Amino acid sequence: GPEPAGGGLFGRPSGPLGSDGNPLKVSIVSFHGYAPALVANGSSLETQPGSIFDRLGVDVELVIQDDIPTLPTIFGSEAAHCAWRTSDFWAQEHPNLRNAQMDARAVMVVDNTQGADAIIARDPAIQRVEDLAGRRVALLQFTPSHGMTIDAIDNSSLSARKKQSIKMTYINVDEGTAGVRAALEGGNVDAAALWDPDLSLALEKVEGAHVIYSTKTATNLIYDVIVCDAAVLDDPANDEAVGAFVAGWLQGVEAAEADPDKAVTALIDNEEFFGLLAREEGRDFVEELFSNLVWTGLEDNARILGMAGGTNHYERVYKRFDGIYRAAGALANPNAPVIDPSESFEYKYVKALLDADTTAQAAAQEPEFTFTEAQRAETTREEAIVTRPVTVNFTSGSAELNKRSERTIDEQMVPMIESHGSAYFQVTGNTDSTGARSANLSLSKRRAEAVVDYLVREWEFPRERFLVVGNGPDAPLCDESDPGAEGLSLEECRAANRTTRLAVHSR
Fold first, then answer.
1. Report field, pTM of the whole predicted structure over 0.90
2. C-alpha angle 391/396/398, rounded to 5°?
3. Could you list the residue range(s) of the whole structural domain that residue 60 is in?
C-alpha cells in the first residue's frame, strides 16, 4: 500500500524529492499571502489526490512555523527544503546564511503587499511621515515594518536633526504585531508600524487610528518570496519537483483569485490562527484582508522580476534593504560581503513558465496602474504623504539638465517613483530667498518641468502622474533667518531651500 506520509523506514525520506515518500517541505507562517499554496494542495497542508500539486506530479508538505526559525535552522535541521521570506527580510538574512556556510535562492514571488503594511497614528496632527518628528513609533525591530519606516523617514524632507528626533520603541518579538497594536492602544507611543491582520484590527478598534503611510502607495516595496536551500536547487535531480512546485503555486493563485471563499476556508481549516480570527471577527474580516495584498501570479512575477522589459523591482528592493539593515546593525557579521541581488534568485523556473505562456507575456506588458489627469488633480489636492528633497544642480539662471543632474534624478528620484507604483507626484522647483521673486517663480517652474520631461522621456513614466509646480522662494524647508534651528549654516539652509521636491500623493 502507500507509504505513510513520514517517508520510508524510521521516517527517513525515500524516493525522489516531491514523491509521496519524500515530499517537498515548505516552511510557512500563518499569513493569508500563502493561501494559494493551501488551495493548490487541495485545501490541506499535505498534497491531496486531485489537487493542483497532485496533478502536476509533486507532493508538497506545508510546515507551519509561526516562531520564525532562521534559515540556517530550517535547512540545517531538515525541517524544510524551502521557506517563506519577505523580500526585505531575505536581503537581511542572506549574508547570515552564507556566514553559516550555507546558501539559498528565491524561486518565485508569491505575494506583494499593497496596504497590508502601514505606519498608523492616533493623533490627528500626524498626517504624513514628516509629522513623526519628535514622536515615538512602536514596531518590531528588523522586520518589514522597520525597514519600511526607515525607508520612509530617509525619503522625507525632515532635516537630519529632525529625523534623529523620531524615537523607535521596539516591541518584544514574542508579543508580535499584537504587542505593537497594544502599545498604540495604550497610548505609550504616537504611531505604530505593523502588518495585517493586526494592522486592520488596529484601524478598526483603536480610536482615531488612521494610515499615514502604507504599501497601498508604496506598492513595489515589500514582496513575499519562497527561498529554497541551494543544496536542493544545485542537484539537477530535484529540478522537476521544484519546477512543478512553482507552477502549482502560481496556478493556486488563479484558483484562489477565482474563488476567494475557498481560500478563506483553506486558511481557517488548516491554520489555528485564522480559525480563531474568523471566530472572533467573522469570515468576512478574513476575506477583506485579501484586498490589502496581491497574490502574484505568473504575469506579476514577470513584471516584478523585470522579465517584461521594465525594472527588476525585486533586485532593486533587495539592494535597498541590504543597505538599510546593514546601517541599522541587523547583520550577524557586519563585515559580511554584499551579495549581488542576481545571486539571490533562481530565475529559471518562472522564466520557463513565462516562455511557454504568451497570454502571461502579454499581460505582463500591461501597466499595473493607469493614471489620469482628473485623478491627479483630485489626489494632489490632498496633502502629500511624504516629500523627498533632491539637490538637482542647475547652472545659475538656467533650467537645462546636465549629465550630473540627470544622474542625481536617476539615483535619488527614480527609485522613489518606482517604489510608489500607484502614486501621483507633485514635482516642485524651489529657490532660496535671494534674487527677485517673480524671476525665481518662473525659473523654478521651468526647472521642475525639465525634471519631469526627463522622467517621461528617459524613464517612460506616464506624464499624467506628475503635477509640475514652481514655488520660487515660497516653500522654504528651512528658515533662512534662523538656520541654526535645524542645525544648519546659512549656506546649507539656502541649499535645502533650493532643492527640487518629489511629493508622493496617494490615490
1. yes
2. 90
3. 9-110+221-297+312-353
